[in-house]
Design the sequence.
């Protein structure tokens, strides 16, 4: 009588592990493979749209530290205690994280058709646990990369917190015209074609 439900749960756990392994493989080395790059490009189009964008979805735009071009990145915005945050599911070596650091935290965020300049403030690791938990509740696709679910004990989130940068989003006045993205005062920044995962 109990073999049916037990077998079903075993199959479900095996499928979950398989999907998690596949998602990690698609970001091997902290960078998306060709399939994920295509998916990220589609997400950039969807997340930046005014009407079709999911509620927590956005497009982060930051100047590449090497290319000098603006790279659009699909991200999930986490709301916690009256503030909005971005989380790097791929850790501190994710390309967008290193670009944000090189830009002094300056970037732009496009949500539901509206784009505004922002300043990203990195949160110390000892204050990330609750934000990471909230992030996983709204971004199930990131769970294989963090290795936890939103119902995991809080100490587990403290354990992984140093490996996953968290940034608080601050809106800032002024137009977003990065210095490294232009050759002179009259040229416009070029937008990179390849989006990088979070």
Sequence:
């Amino acid at each position: 009588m109990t073999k049916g439900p037990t077998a079903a749960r075993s199959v479900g756990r095996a499928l979950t592990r398989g999907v998690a392994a596949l998602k990690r493989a698609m970001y091997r080395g902290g960078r998306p493979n060709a399939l994920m790059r295509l998916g990220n490009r589609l997400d950039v189009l969807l997340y930046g749209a005014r009407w079709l964008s999911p509620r927590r979805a956005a497009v982060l735009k930051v100047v590449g530290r090497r290319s000098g071009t603006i790279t659009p990145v699909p991200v999930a915005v986490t709301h916690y205690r009256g503030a909005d945050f971005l989380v790097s599911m791929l850790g501190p070596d994710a390309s967008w994280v290193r670009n944000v650091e090189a830009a002094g935290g300056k970037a732009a965020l496009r949500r539901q058709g509206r784009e505004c300049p922002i300043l990203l403030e990195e949160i110390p690791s000892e204050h990330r646990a609750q934000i990471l938990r909230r992030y996983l509740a709204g971004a199930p696709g990131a769970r294989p990369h963090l290795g936890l679910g939103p119902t995991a004990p809080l100490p587990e989130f403290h354990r992984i917190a140093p490996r996953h940068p968290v940034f608080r989003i601050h809106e800032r006045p002024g137009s977003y015209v990065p210095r490294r993205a232009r050759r002179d005062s009259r040229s416009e920044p070029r937008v990179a074609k390849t989006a990088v995962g979070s």
User: Anything to note?
Assistant: The helical segments are 3-26, 34-47, 95-102, 129-138, 143-146, 154-160.
